[in-house]
Structure formats: structure tokens, C-alpha cells
Amino acid sequence: MWVKSEYAGEVAVLSTWLCALLPWSVSVFRESFGSAGLVTAVWLRFLPGRVLYVSGAVERAGSPWNWVWEVPGFVASQGETVASYVWLVGTAVFALAFVLSVAYYLDEAHVESWRLDPVRTLGGLLVTSGAVLLLASGLLFSEQAGTTVPVGTILQLGLGVSLLRAERA
Q1: DSSP per residue over 97-123, as a string?
Q2: pTM of the full structure
Q3: I need a labelling partner for 43 at 20 to 30 A (CA). Which of 13, 72, 113, 133 fits?
Q4: Rounded CA gap, 28 and 146, in Å?
């Protein structure tokens, strides 16, 4: 495909790191709450955790950041709890890809000597993690008030597929 053999390793590492930095899902919720007026809540979900931004609220208890393993305790419905556990599985799969990408970056020759092709392995892990996160996005879309968009998940799936289809010598 568009990834040439001589650059496939670098593209694989950079693709994995880019997916680690981007939010995999963004949710927006707007509601009018009596005297508080219009309140907008935005959830930015990164692989290690989520950030909640609430505008129009006078005061919010606690930190706006929750680690991925804490999220199931902070959601409102059973469906959101299931989505949070699915997210945790997707993050665990991605953690394998991230560790492999760091090892590949630090010692390319050693990782290239392994029996499995590291570029295709990273591609497979990105696609698997992306598919799991897409399932979590679907659950959030159906269970959570507001709109959920799988921003980084779509990019992660595209990058993973391109790594799986990369020309390898």
C-alpha cells in the first residue's frame, strides 16, 4: 500500500505513538438545569483515562481526570459500566502494542530478528484495539446522553490496516 518497505518500521512506531496521544472518543452533552442554565459536558477519552470538562457548572467535586480503571465507578448506567470495561480491554491490547513499539524503537535489529513481523504485529494489535474501542464507542453512543464520536478509533483502525498491508521485503 502507501507504506514502503524501508519505512514500514518507522511508520509502525510513529502510528502507535500517535494513537497513544489522540483521544479515542469524544462525547458532548448539553442540558439546561434550572437556575444553573445551560450546562455543557465534554468527555475526552484517551487510552489511559478520561478528562471531563463541564462548562456552566458552579462547582465540581474531585478531579476532572479519571484513570481507565477508575471509570467504571464514575458512570451512571449499567451500559456505560460495560462500555468502560470494554475500554479497559482495548487499552490492555493497546498497551501490548505500545510496549512493542518502544522495544522496536530502542532495538530495531533485535525486534526485526523475531519470528513475527513487528510491523504486521503492531498493525494487528492496532486493529484489534481499535475494534474493541469502536465497540465501546457504540455502547457509549447507545447508553450515554449526548453524542459520542470515535475520533481516534477511526484513525487507529486506518493506521492498523495500512500497517497490515505494508510492503515488506
Answers
A1: HHHHHHHHHH-HHHHHTSSS-HHHHHH
A2: 0.86
A3: 13
A4: 5
C-alpha torsion 117→122→127→132, nearest 10: 130
Looking at the predicted structure, is the pLDDT value of residue 62 above 70?
Answer: no
Delimit the domains of the chain by residue range. 5-164
Question: Which tens digits make up the pLDDT trace of 111-128?
Answer: 989 899 999 999 999 999
In CATH, the architecture of 5-164 is Up-down Bundle (1.20)
Q: Minimal CA–CA distance to 64: which of 48, 81, 78, 44?
A: 44
Cell numbers describing residue 35: 437556575
Buried b / exposed e over 98-130, threshold 16 CB at 10 Å, is bebbeebbeeeeebeeeeebbbbbbbbbbbbbb
CB 50 within 8 A of CB 65: yes
